Each structure stands twice: as structure tokens, then as C-alpha cells.
Write the C-alpha cells for this entry.
Amino acid sequence: MQGVFDVLFNGLSIGAVLLIAALGLAIVFGLMGVINLAHGELMMLGAYTTFIVQNAFKPLGDSPLFSAYIFVALIAAFFVAAGVGLFLERQVVRYLYGRPLETLLATWGVSLILRQFVRSVSWSIAIGLVLFSLLFWGGQWVLKRRLDWNQLKAKALTILLPLSSAIAIIGGVVLNANKALAKPWFSARNIDVTAPSWLRGGVNLGSFQFPVARLFIIGLTILCLLGTYWFLQKSAWGLRIRAVTQNREMSACLGIPTNTVDALTFALGSGLAGVAGCAVTLLGSVGPNLGANYIVDAFMVVVVGGVGKLIGSVVAAIAIGTVTYLLGSGYLPLWMTQLGLTETLQPLFDFFTFFSTTSMAKVMVFALIITFLQIKPAGLFPQKGRTVDA
Amino acid sequence: MSYSQSPSAVASTTEAPNQPMLDINNLNVYYGESHILRNVDMSVARGKMICLIGRNGVGKTTLLKSVMGLLQPRSGNIVLDGQPINRLSTDRRARLGIGYVPQGREIIPRVTVRENLLLGMESLPKEDRKRATMEEVFDLFPVLKTMLDRMGGDLSGGQQQQLAIARAILSKPKLLVLDEPTEGIQPSIILEIEAAVRRIIEATGISVLLVEQHLHFVRQADWYYAMQKGGIVASGPTEQLSQDVIQEFLAV
């Protein structure tokens, strides 16, 4: 009995982490059909934002006020990731709608850039980037006020781009001579976020102990899920998002600004990735490669659940979480011994014993998912009728 | 036929009354390298109903899509109510006052009928959207009121067509563009749709651009344009629509 309870709780707990990581992707990939390989890096940015917010709260000592940093961090992580997502959509992804292969390559490139960015970012790089943005976009903004902007455009960009990058790079190199400015903010090493004191430890229920951090993540996941559901189903922008994902041309004919809707949808999905990044800081240390640990799982959840269905992602996340824990924890061979089935079903016993480590369990889950997708290629809850057009 | 413009519709027309609601000049549209519309000139007068006739595949739908901005013309001008709209995006055009009922109806399938109607109000200015009600379209199409919570995609073809027209009307357009509203719909509903369009014109005095194959409906219009091979080849008042012209341009 204890074992079943343990499997259920831990399965739910792993499922919650999977789901919160996949929720943003369920919107970006599920609803918009954009394969965003930088989704994991948006999580990573959320995690680093949490680290920064925590450091900002450090002077408060171990007071209850410090413990509240996690809520500030959640909001900050949402907006930082949403902002980066918005920038990514406006500058890269929107030119690639309907071209999945190019989107895949471009967002993968963005993910590599973001990873290296957090490794090497220092004051000199940050100042250089700000300088570039000011010169490049500020210059465009000034020039746009001229009436002949449309004729000037091509020429202006060919001058502005190399000029502003040159100034920014030279500025950065000069500033780099200063040791303090050249020192990386985070470096390539992992950083640790200290969970607030009230999230450490556990809640005892009989002989069973629930870690509070895990309960917090489950609660946060439910909250994000309900919030997303409410936004999509009940709000005016949610209706616009659903209309555009189902019939883009007709939505435009009805006067819905499809460009704005695309940007908003992508930003929302990215923001949820940021929240997920903040949540996973409670589980362990944070590094530039954090995203890589989650991106495959997140895509797996969305695909198994059925692209375009929020409920599918929920069921898939909990199912994958439970199966992973059930296999990895070694409960199956244990139960077989208790039931006295070891002798009669020796090969099965050996099989489960072999797979009862975390990494081998993952192999098994992958194999199961591949088998499942052979039987139901469209996932648990396939989209009926008209499919989503990218 | 007789129709009367309501005072409010006259008041809302700020430009000179003889200026057409929609004016298309020398329009050329291509699909890739194939030339679909050739030097099309036509105009829709204020408060009039204009019908575009022609056999299948002569470019009628292409013309309407170009008006909506779903297709980019290679050359030519489209002017709505005195304002050139060639370079505007589709959603801007809708917000300037074009209500579009496309061929095949294009109801948003997985949202409810109520939400489909709400989407019809998207092109209203924000303050008008709050005050807008759906009652007017329930007078025209009472059947919609009984199925507000059904999914748009679950409605029958005739009901979807009524919903599509209702959705277009809710945006209070200056110009209503209808692409074969009676195609594939049972005769009793065709009459209902015809009557509704007539009532809309009488009540609001909006201009209508209609593509139609159904002769009875074509006869309701004030003026016709006939298309052949991507160009306008004949036009005139619909009273003068002779049997020869009908034989030549309508697929009956």
C-alpha cells in the first residue's frame, strides 16, 4: 500500500515538472505549430532570473521577506522569458511561419546563442549589446520619421548594421580591458538557488513524508494550467488566439490583427517556460545546459498528448511521470518478490530489475512511447476535423 | 425593387455622395506566373447592390480575395470610400468596414456559435464593441439564437451560411462582400438568406458586392458585371439582363 502511494505521489510529482516544462510548448508547438528548440533555453533564462532575484533579496537576511523572493522571481521569470520570446518571434520566427525545418534550425541556433550568452555575459558584453541596440534600432527609429523611408530602407540598413556592430564591438573590447567589467556574471559553472526556508523539509502524513518543494511545484503547475485554460477559453485575446490557430485567413478577414496575436501567443508560451525554469531551480542546481535536460521531455509530452490539446499534455505528463518512476524506482521487482511470483516469472523479474535504474527507465519509457505512437500516431487526444495550419 | 436609405447611413458617409463605395482600377492579379485578373475595372455605388456573374473559374473569387487583401495584386488600385487600401493588411481592411462572407463560409469550427458572432464584432472600434448586441442578427436569423453554445463546425451548411452572414453584419460594415452565399444550400434556406440580405440593405443602406450563380438572387441586384477569362466583359442595370447574357455568363 505504501508503495502504491509512493509511486502515485512521485509519478504526479515528476509529471508536474514535465507538465510545467511542456505547458508553454503546448501553446507554441501545439497551437501555433512552431517547433521552438529554444524553449529549454527560455526555461534556463527563467532559472537565471530566479537566481538574480534571489541575490537581490540576499541583503534581507533570513527574514520571512527573503522567503517571499520566490513569488517575485516567478513573476520576473515570466516577464523576462516572455520578453525574450517576443523578441525571438518578431525578429526570427515570424519570417519562418509555415516552414518547420527552417524554424527548427533557426531556433536551435538561438538556443546555442542563449547558452553561450549566459556563460560569457559580463558588463562589457551587456554594455556592448545595449550600445548596438541603441544605435541600430534607435537609428532606424529616427530614420523612419523621414518621408522617403521606403526608398532609403535598404541603403540605411546596409550602413546601419555594420556601423553599429563595429562601434558596439570596439566599445566592448575597450571595456573588456577593465578586469571588473570583463568578469562574467555567471560563468559556465552551475549556480545554486537556495530554496526559501518554508519550501525546504517536508510535510508528514502518517508514515509518509511529502517534500514541500515538490508539493509547491504541483500546486504551481495546477495554477499555471488553470490560468492558461482560463486565458484561452474565457478571455477576448484567448478567443482571438483560438480563432487564428483554427483559420488564419478568415480571422484576418474578421479584423483580428493576426500579427499581434502571433506575437502574444509566442510570448505567452515563452513566459510559461520562464515560470517552469523558476520552478525547477527548487529541484537542483542551475546551469547553462539546463534547457537540454527538459526540451526532449517537453516535446515528448506534447506529442504523446496530441498536438493542440491542453488536456492531452496533462494526461501524457502524468502518465509518463508515473511510468518513469514505476520503472526506475524498482518497485515492480519488489512487488513480484512479495507476491511470490519471482520463480514462475523469472525472465520478467530479470527484465524489470534490469530497467530499474533512472537512466534505463528512461530508455524503457522512450521505447514505450515509440510503440504507442505506432498505434496512435496523433497522440492520446487527436485533433478532430480541420488541422492546425502553421 | 425599392429600398430606402436610413438617415444614419447617409450621415455616416462623409465623402461626396456620388463617390463610389468601392472603386477598382486596372487590377491585375497573378497566381505565380499565370495571369488571373486582367485589367479589371469596376465600382460599387453607395447603397447599391452589385452582382458579379460569370462561369466557374473566371476569377470572381480571386477578385473578392484581392479586395480583402488575401491576394496581392501586381498592379492596379483598390479604393474603399475614398481611401486607397492596396497596401493595407487584411485585418486593417476589415476594420475599415468590409464585411466578408467567403465561399465555403469559413466558420471557425472549434469555437461556439456565440464566439463566432463575437469574432464578428472584432473589427468594431473598442468602445463600440462593448455596447454592441447580437439582437439584430437574431431577428434576421432566429435559428442562431437556439444554438449559441454549439460548436460552429457542427452546424449544417445552411446554418453555417446564416452564421457567416450574421458574423459579417455584426461588424457594421460599409461594404458587404458575399461570395456565392447560396452555393450548396437547400432552396428554402436560399429564400431566407435572400430575404435577410434584402432586409439588411433596407435597414442599413450598406453597399453590397455579390458573386452569385442563382438567377433569382442575381435579379435582386441593381447593377451587374459579367466576367470572362479574368476580365469584365459586360455590365449594366440588372433589369436589362437579357436571356442571351444569362445564357452566356451564368452556369444554368
In short: The domain at 2-121+184-329 of chain A is CATH 1.10.3470 (ABC transporter involved in vitamin B12 uptake, BtuC).
